[in-house]
Amino acid sequence: MVTGYLDHLTVERGLAANTIASYRRDLRRYTEYLTAAGVRGLREVAGSDVSGFLSALREGGRVGDVDHPPLSATSAARAVVAVRGLHRFALLDGLVPDDVAHEVRPPTPARRLPKAVPVESVVALIEAAGSVEGPRGLRDRALLEVLYGTGARISEAVGLAVDDLDRGQAAVRLAGKGGKERVVPVGSYALRAVEDYLVRARPALAAGARGGVRGGVLFLNARGGPLSRQSAWSILRSAAERAGLDPATVSPHTLRHSFATHLLDGGADVRVVQELLGHASVTTTQVYTLVTVDRLREVYATSHPRALT
């Protein structure tokens, strides 16, 4: 049953591989919990079993031979969503008479504001990345310019092909979650950095590939293969250290957050930022407006003559 549900999510819903892997882990834990409780199939599951599973997620404990640490509200909510989806799928397929998970609500995660860094810190990061001698420095600078200049997710950036970048139109085609594509403008700084990389660095990196570079991948590693997400993280951490920033506070997603926040600070409409980020709902994007309100409040408090106490 679980396999059929995951296949449905992969083929018909087009969910990302990482999401499917998370759902698979969550549902494996759910089935282990049901087995330990003496439940032998979905037809025997009661609403109390589903709510009990949620409590077990939040409290942690031993299920079978495995000790599970308590999950955060965010992780527990994802697991409950997976379980609710499984029961809904079973109902629609006629495998169970009722959806017993329908009334079990996921915990509400604490609302966390996105972390952005000031423009000058972004510039320092990019400069530090480009300070490495040889092809790597040109590649690293181009990667960070693309991340900050387009708001791309790290998976979208390392998945780029050379042909995804339209230098004539100053735009890039990004493949987002669920295989949804969007076209995002690219600024002159990122275009110049990518051009330098393509002319002066990528050929040298591609020369190390056995059997040639496959698929025209834009960002290559030292062996001529596709740059991995882990390597991109390492590039950013190293750049943060050289720039005098705390690597623990900087991630590829930080550049995406900074991209959105700086656009809104500059007067961009939230729906435009939604399109650029590839968010399905404007509600997801609106969390960034809280950041800019805080910034406005700070400027007001330090600048307005009647705001000072």
Overview of this protein structure:
The protein is mostly helical and 309 residues long. It is built from 14 helices and five strands. It has helices at 2-11, 17-36, 47-59, 73-92, 119-130, 135-150, 154-158, 188-200, 202-206, 229-242, 252-265, 270-277, 282-285, 287-303, and strands spanning 61-63, 66-68, 165-166, 171-175, 181-185. The chain has a three-stranded antiparallel sheet, with no helix packed on it. The relative contact order is 0.09. Residues 1-91 form the Core-binding (CB) domain. This is Tyrosine recombinase XerD.
**CATH homologous superfamily caption of the largest domain:** Intergrase catalytic core
What is the typical, i.e. mean, pLDDT?
Answer: 86
Per the principal axes of the C-alpha atoms, what is the gross shape?
A: globular
What gap, in angstroms, lies between the N and C termini? Answer: 64 Å
Provide a count of the helices: 14
Kindly identify the CATH topology of the largest domain: hpI Integrase, Chain A
Q: What is the domain total for the residues?
A: 2
CATH architecture grouping of the largest domain? Orthogonal Bundle
Instruction: Give a quick account of the main beta sheet: strands, pairing sense, barrel closure.
Output: 3 strands, antiparallel
Low-pLDDT segments: none
Order of helices and strands: HHHEEHHHHEEEHHHHHHH
Can you list the strand order of the major beta sheet? 3-4-5
* Strand fraction: 5-15%
SS-based class: mainly alpha
CATH class of the largest domain: Mainly Alpha
Query: Radius of gyration over alpha carbons?
Result: 23 Å
Counted beta strands: 5
Helix-residue proportion: 55-70%
